[in-house]
Amino acid sequence: MRGWWRELVDLVLPADCAGCGLPRAGLCARCRGLLDGAEARRVRPAVAGPPVVYASLTYADEARAVLLAHKERGALWLAAPLGSVLAGAVRAVADAAGTVADDGPLLLVPVPSARRAVAARGHDPVRRTALAAAGELRRAGRPARVLPVVRQRRSVADQAGLTATRRSANLAGALGVPAGAGRLLAEGPVVVVDDLVTTGASLAEAARALTGAGGRVVGAAVVAVAETDLPRPAAPGGLGDWRGTTV
């Protein structure tokens, strides 16, 4: 009910631009162009374990503001433009994996949010964005559907402020897939989706759970990648790296 009320208010009383704050713009031409012109690129997460990851935006400035407006301030209408951005990252994953339509529909599996977070926000932003992305892909002729089969098995600590290693430990074994979901996962290539990747710990844990249930995970797609100074594990040559590096 809360979600429908927010959408009605957005239609009747357009808000300031969700990206730059331009008065009464909703989403100004410049910020919409930022989303429409986003190009997916491969990023290297800080933790070991995630599949190939593609992101379309950097989590900063207007892009950060738009994501937060959708996620935390209930600007539900932003799911459509953010879904288009996510669809671009999904396409990049599918192309890199060499998937074709004959492989079956792309199965977009959202990383689950904590129940308390969904209740507090009044909606599930990742699932909503994934649904919009799947619709965009279908309209472009690529079969796709959302398959929300990953569940939280236990509560986890707040990830904010944790190092990459501690994030992985915090999430280890926290996600699972219900018995019987293997049949659904066998219908096509699986792409793990999220709105934001910081260290990749959530993507890695979701991919682990899906692979264990029989899913063919071909990669992960996110709307944005966070630039952070969290150190990555040392490379063989002894040099560290940072999350958010494109390759």
UniProtKB/TrEMBL annotation:
InterPro entries: ComF/GntX_DNA_util-trans (IPR051910), PRTase-like (IPR029057), PRTase_dom (IPR000836). Coiled coil: none annotated. It comes from the Bacteria. Residues 157-224 form the Phosphoribosyltransferase domain. It comes from Streptomyces macrosporus. Belongs to the ComF/GntX family. This is ComF family protein.
